[in-house]
Design brief:
InterPro entries: ScyD/ScyE-like, WD40/YVTN_repeat-like_dom_sf. Residues 1-26 form the signal peptide. Keywords: Signal. The protein has 362 residues and is mainly beta. The chain is built from 2 helices and 28 strands.
């Protein structure tokens, strides 16, 4: 599935404007959203480790550390297609993907390499090749996607097809002594050891929804459609369980509310559906009291899942990534879109108290 690459191709930023960070003062009532930086072109993922805020910028190929003045100090540079980032003490892991240029046959390009880069405390890099794992195994090869009518558009990417060989290592999390990767191309969650061994945790379920006549690219597509589930983020809870967001890309056809939130047992691979109805769920974060924050790119902001109920948390147009930090602070990023009135990407904090950022590099 190429939905995440389509997101990257379709986004652009008006410019680099270094913002002076606003610091939220202690108060009661709704939390304050404070701007910290406009220095990232495509902040696909954030990692908050104490007072360190790391940013994976997919357009510049850089992992940067947010500074108090809003600048980003380079931590790793020249990483093709960097999207995900995670830490474990002095360990650092980040995803990368190499794609061919778009052409008429492949308007989003083709992923030819993808994997997880693991930087050890000694500074050496271990590369876990998720693309090679996908080529060798293609875990969703037996799953059929597309319209219920298998004869509909047989030669089109919209037509019925089994899981394709495609890897796009997008997000990464650390937990249970290993790394977990949300592969947006393979439609699965992978486990990666520190030595770079890759194995399957679970394939996400396909998404069934109805395409109305006004949204169908072709008459035969009207009705039930089985979309590829595109995992966009994975986090490890205090219970050792994995929490995952998925999207379908169906918002491109004007059908909102088709993204989902899941829990996965990393030992058995058992999958539990927690909530649906999100629009463009591109990221999630786990709160200290069991709440789960979800960034909705097409939903206008950050939502929160508490005790089985989803409700709005913070209005944030073009929300892209979300993480939680010290003192219950929620950090988030937005993607700057090239519109009639261009809007730059942003990194913000959402908090009731004073927020600090450590300038020191990791």
């Amino acid at each position: 599935m190429h939905s995440m690459r389509a997101l990257a191709v379709g986004c652009a930023v008006a410019g680099l404007i270094i913002a002076t960070p606003a610091v939220a003062s202690a108060k009661t009532g709704p939390p304050t959203t404070s701007d910290w930086s406009d220095a990232s072109l495509a902040p696909f993922n954030l990692e908050v480790d104490g007072t360190r805020v790391l940013v994976a910028d997919g357009f510049t190929g850089m992992v940067g550390a947010l500074q108090p003045d809003g600048t980003l100090a380079p931590v790793v540079t020249d990483v093709p297609g960097v999207a995900g980032i995670a830490t474990r003490g002095k360990w650092l892991a980040y995803t990368s993907t190499v794609s061919t240029p778009p052409d008429e046959q492949h308007p989003e390009g083709v992923n030819v390499a993808s994997g997880l880069n693991i930087r050890t405390p000694q500074g050496t890099i271990v590369y876990a090749d998720t693309h090679a794992f996908e080529v060798a195994n293609n875990p969703d090869a037996g799953v059929t996607y597309g319209p219920a009518d298998a004869s509909c558009l047989p030669d089109s990417p919209f037509g019925a097809h089994n899981g394709l060989v495609d890897s796009h290592a997008y997000s990464v999390a650390s937990g249970n002594g290993v790394w977990y990767v949300a592969d947006a191309g393979g439609n699965d969650i992978l486990k990666v050891t520190d030595s770079g061994q890759v194995s399957l945790v679970a394939v996400l379920p396909r998404k069934a929804f109805d395409i109305p006549p006004e949204a169908a690219p072709a008459p035969c597509l009207v009705g039930t459609y089985y979309s590829e589930p595109v995992p966009t983020d994975v986090e490890v809870g205090g219970d050792g369980q994995l929490y995952v967001t998925t999207l379908t890309g169906a918002t491109e056809a004007g059908i909102p509310g088709l993204s989902d939130l899941w829990r996965i047992n990393p030992t058995t691979g058992a999958i539990t559906h927690l909530a649906g109805g999100f629009s463009g769920a591109t990221n999630l974060a786990l709160g200290k009291n069991g709440e789960i924050y979800v960034a909705e790119l097409d939903g206008g902001g950050i939502s929160v899942y508490r005790n089985g109920v989803v409700s709005p948390y913070a209005a944030l147009p073009n929300a892209l990534a979300v993480e939680t930090g010290a003192g219950g602070t929620v950090w988030a990023s937005t993607i700057g879109l090239l519109q009639q009135n261009p809007v730059p990407s942003r990194i913000v904090s959402i908090s009731n108290g004073k927020v600090k950022v450590q300038a020191k590099l990791p």
